[in-house]
Design a protein that fits this description.
Layout (H helix, E strand, L loop, with lengths): L2 H9 L11 E5 L3 E3 L3 E9 L6 E3 L5 E4 L7 E7 L7 E9 L2 E2 L3 E6 L3 E3 L9 E6 L6 E7 L4 E7 L9 E6 L5 E6 L8 E6 L4 E9 L9 E7 L2 E2 L2 E3 L2 E2 L5 E5 L5 E4 L8 E3 L8 E2 L4 E4 L3 E4 L8 E3 L4 E6 L6 E7 L5 E7 L9 E6 L5 E5 L9 E5 L6 E8 L9 E8 L6 E6 L3 E5 L3 E11 L5 E6 L6 E3 L2 E2 L5 E7 L5 E12 L4 E6 L15 E6 L7 E4 L13 E9 L7 E7 L5 E2 L2 E2 L6 E2 L5 E3 L5 E7 L8 E11 L6 E6 L3 E4 L8
Parallel strand pairs: 2-9, 10-11, 19-25, 21-26, 27-29, 28-30, 37-45, 38-46
Antiparallel strand pairs: 1-3, 3-6, 4-7, 5-6, 7-8, 7-9, 11-18, 12-17, 13-16, 13-18, 14-15, 14-17, 20-22, 22-23, 24-26, 29-36, 30-35, 31-34, 31-36, 32-33, 32-35, 37-39, 39-43, 40-42, 40-44, 41-43, 44-45, 44-46, 47-48, 48-54, 49-53, 49-55, 50-51, 52-54, 55-56, 55-57
Length: 654
């Protein structure tokens, strides 16, 4: 046996995940109060005898007595310096870390839902089912200012909320439904017309709330961040405006350093609630709209961007893009994706003001993107930005990027799928990192923060032109407290990008949440469950249009459990109609994998190699799951060592 082969077998000897990874089903409250103590009850599975909370900020957590495998109650004390925003809450036990639930963190008192609101401000938590309407009442005074907001979609709920505010005689004072400004949730602000008892009602927009339609209802006077202007800055930007229901607040920016995202510090004093404000640090040439100009503002045609506001109804901001005839330009607007209230439309005009082209909605968004070639008789174009519905206001913020398509682009982004990693002491785990390339074809080096000091990463380089890598994490230490890790990749050009969870629901609202990967180092298993290759040829290759058998051998506990084998690859999925394209996807012959009967110690996973493989090499591993008798629960998990297989070059026909 070769030395490197022997090392891999040793490292994977305990490479399994204990079945008792905890799970969270419900949380009594969906918020934590800054500067106070919140009592939170969690219902779940496999919570163990001494569960701990894993939060991304300092907190004093106390487990209350009489907890069980199914329920645990915590007292959570937060200091005044904990930032307002949304956060992941996880349970950590000896078996690992749960998948996260999203909770709000703000200065509002957190209470279970009540028919009478009592003292304001307050944040309630409740559920809506089917066509039900949930109501609470409050005593109001003439001239009293009231803000009502529902958080549901932002917390991972399936509720499509609508809120109504009724006066003492049941007349409707105001109502609101979901909007892009609240990322699918809703809010309203009102001044109460008189003294009396007011009613706040919440229901689903179609009166058909699905299972899991919980919500958080906020009542009273509090400040919310509804945007930042400009939302994208450069290293030279010194301050930005925080936009909300009241007048904008100017805040200074922290030092940029090498971070691509800067968190903003909210002013002290008032109660803040909602998402934590942030700005992106751009590598482009960034401009800010200069109001009052009689002539279009000049913007370069290469890798530039401009931020502006449409303050008045039917306003159109115009920018002069200088470019030679025949130059192909690309424009992309960002508004809905910023949580802005504006429905952006882009128009191209000539010097006389005539419309040459127009674009409104993009793919999957209201934000348009289109390409345009400068006509032969022109030396540039005028770009117009307007609201497609003729609206305007102080929060109608937009950003438009401008690129010359002929100019070479060198960019990339990194994604992953697992939200948590469990590493048995002395064992190993796999972490796939995939790259979407936009012009950059070179290698990328993967690193991580937050892992134990003795953890070792293997296979950390994504080769030039490759889709990704399967990083192997090993550790010889004992079980330790769970942690939150953050991963990143550095290109040869020096550009560093974070590894983000694919399709995280809050990536646009608080992008750093998509970069949180929980990590737990657990105790070694009592019964060995391991997986290794079984005489896989050293010269194995991936032949387009062919087959490849992946033979494995398993060491397993003495039981009647079935073992399921599935494929893990570093291939970036090529999609057609949001489904993997079979003409370009490495896959097991059976989508559900292969099952090894009870007590079987050898098996084969047949691999189908598609006729089209754009890459030159791919990482492969086989995953084995020890299943319960009903095949609904995974008792343990193991992986083979990673194999990096080249794609065979088709032989020319003679």
């Amino acid at each position: 046996m070769h030395l490197h082969r022997a090392i891999f077998v040793l490292l994977f000897a305990s490479g399994l995940t204990i079945a008792a990874e905890p799970g969270i089903r419900t949380v009594s409250l969906r918020g934590l109060q800054v500067g106070a103590t919140t009592t939170l009850t969690i219902d779940g599975d496999d919570l163990g005898s001494a569960p701990k909370l894993l939060l991304p900020f300092p907190a004093k957590t106390t487990l209350k007595p009489k907890n069980t495998e199914k329920q645990a109650t915590f007292e959570i004390a937060l200091g005044q310096d904990v930032p307002t925003g949304f956060a992941h809450l996880r349970i950590a036990t000896e078996g690992g870390v749960s998948l996260p639930v999203i909770v709000a963190v703000d200065g509002l008192p957190q209470r279970p839902f009540a028919a009478e609101a009592g003292a304001l401000p307050v944040a309630f938590v409740s559920n809506v089912s089917a066509s039900n309407i949930i109501e609470t009442t409050m005593k109001g005074q003439a001239g009293q200012k009231l803000q009502v907001e529902v958080e549901a979609q932002r917390l991972g709920s399936k509720l499509r909320p609508v809120i109504h505010l009724y006066g003492p005689t049941r007349q409707q004072i105001a109502w609101a439904w979901s909007s892009s400004a609240t990322f699918g949730d809703c809010r309203l602000a009102a001044t109460l017309p008189g003294e009396g008892v007011y009613t706040i009602a919440v229901h689903d927009v179609e009166y058909a709330a699905p299972t899991g339609s919980f919500f958080r209802l906020k009542l009273g006077e509090f400040n919310s961040v509804e945007g930042v202007y400009p939302p994208v800055v450069t290293a030279q930007t010194r301050s930005v405006e925080i936009l909300g229901p009241s007048e904008p607040v100017t805040v200074k920016l922290p030092a940029t350093g090498k971070e691509s995202i800067l968190h903003l510090t909210l002013p002290k004093g008032p109660i803040w609630s909602g998402a934590r404000p942030w700005v992106e640090v751009s590598e482009r040439v960034e401009f800010v709209e200069q109001p009052g100009n009689s002539k279009p503002q000049a913007i370069p045609a290469e890798r530039s961007a401009v931020c502006g506001k449409l303050l008045a109804a039917f306003e159109e901001d115009r920018y002069l893009i200088s470019a030679k005839p025949g130059t192909k330009l690309k424009f992309e607007a960002f508004a809905e994706r910023l949580g802005s209230t504006v429905d952006v439309a882009l128009v191209i005009r000539n010097e006389a003001g005539a419309v040459l082209a127009k674009a409104e909605d993009g793919v999957g968004t209201l934000d348009p993107a289109f390409e345009y070639t400068v006509p032969a008789e022109e030396v540039g174009v005028i770009l117009g930005v307007l609201d497609a519905q003729g609206r305007g206001g102080p929060r109608s913020v937009y950003r438009v990027t401008v690129d010359t398509i002929a100019k070479e682009v060198s960019d990339f982004s990194l994604t992953t799928i697992p939200q948590r990693l469990s590493l048995p002491a002395g064992g190993a785990a796999l972490f796939p990192v995939l790259v979407e390339r936009n012009g950059y074809t070179g290698p990328i080096e993967i690193t991580a923060d937050g892992l134990p000091k003795d953890a070792t990463l293997v296979n950390t380089t994504i080769p030039a032109g490759a889709d990704g890598t399967l990083v192997t994490i090993t550790s010889q230490g004992s079980a330790a407290d769970a942690s939150i890790t953050r991963w990143r990749g550095k290109a040869e050009t020096g550009v560093v990008k974070p590894v983000l969870l694919k399709d995280h629901p809050l990536e646009l609202l608080e992008p750093w949440l998509a970069g949180e990967i929980s990590f737990a180092r657990t105790a070694p298993p009592k019964d060995a469950f391991t997986l290794d290759w079984n005489k896989l040829p050293e010269n194995a290759t991936l032949t387009p249009g062919g087959k490849l058998s992946l033979p494995v051998k398993v060491t397993r506990p003495a039981s009647n459990s079935v073992v399921r084998l599935t494929l893990v690859t570093s291939q970036l999925p090529r999609l057609v109609n949001n489904q993997p394209n079979p003409m370009q996807t490495l896959r097991a012959e059976a989508a559900s994998g292969v099952e090894l009967a009870a007590k079987a110690t050898e098996g084969t996973l047949p691999l189908t190699v598609p006729p089209q493989l754009p890459g030159t090499m791919y990482d492969l591993a086989v995953k084995a799951e020890l299943l319960s008798a009903d095949k609904k629960t995974t008792l343990a998990t193991a992986y083979t060592p990673v194999k990096r297989l080249p794609v065979a070059t088709p032989k020319a026909k003679k």
